[in-house]
């Protein structure tokens, strides 16, 4: 995959994160897409400079933990507030 395509995907996911802020699930999907683009960039960097893939696996572990924490916050919010709107977090 070309570097420019990955950078374009990264920018579009950042723009979607900034402009689509109604639901937490949409924000989490945007963040996961950002993480996926960064993971592709790390993979491209490892391939270009002939590095080992340990750093790739290391970052992938952190990205999985980030996704699990995001989903647990989403489940907690739906249980407490009944919806996943970001505005309902700040009303209490």
Question: Can you put this structure into words, describing what you see?
Answer:
By secondary structure, the protein is an all-alpha fold. The protein has a single domain (3-89), classed as Helix Hairpins. It is built from 3 helices and no strands. It has helices at residues 3-19, 24-48, 54-81. The protein is elongated and about 50 Å long.
Key traits:
transmembrane helix, single chain, Helix Hairpins, 3 helices, transmembrane, mainly alpha, translocase, 92 residues, NADH dehydrogenase (ubiquinone) activity, elongated, NADH-ubiquinone oxidoreductase chain 4L
Low-confidence stretches: none
Instruction: Give the CATH topology.
Output: Helix Hairpins
Name the helix and strand elements from N-terminus to C-terminus, one letter apiece: HHH
Supply the CATH class.
Mainly Alpha
Number of individual domains: 1
Return the average pLDDT rounded to an integer.
85
Count of runs of 4 or more consecutive helical residues: 3
Total E-strand runs: 0
Query: What share of the residues does DSSP label as strand, in percent?
Result: under 5%
The CATH architecture classification is: Orthogonal Bundle
Helix coverage percent of residues?
Answer: over 70%
Overall spatial form = elongated
User: Class by helix and strand content?
Assistant: mainly alpha
State the major sheet: none
Radius of gyration: 16 Å
**First-last Cα distance:** 46 Å
SSE layout and pairing:
Layout: H1 3-19, H2 24-48, H3 54-81
Helix pairs in contact: 1-2, 2-3
Short summary of the structure?
This protein has helices spanning 3-19, 24-48, 54-81. The protein is mostly helical and 92 residues long. It has one domain (3-89): Orthogonal Bundle (Helix Hairpins).
């Amino acid at each position: 995959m070309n570097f420019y395509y990955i950078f374009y995907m990264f920018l579009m996911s950042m723009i979607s994160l900034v402009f689509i802020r109604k639901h937490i699930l949409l924000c989490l999907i945007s963040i996961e897409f950002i993480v996926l683009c960064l993971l592709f960039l790390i993979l491209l960097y490892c391939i270009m400079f002939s590095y080992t893939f340990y750093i790739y696996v290391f970052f992938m572990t952190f990205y999985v933990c980030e996704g699990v924490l995001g989903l647990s916050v989403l489940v907690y919010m739906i249980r407490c507030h009944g919806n996943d709107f970001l505005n309902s977090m700040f009303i209490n």
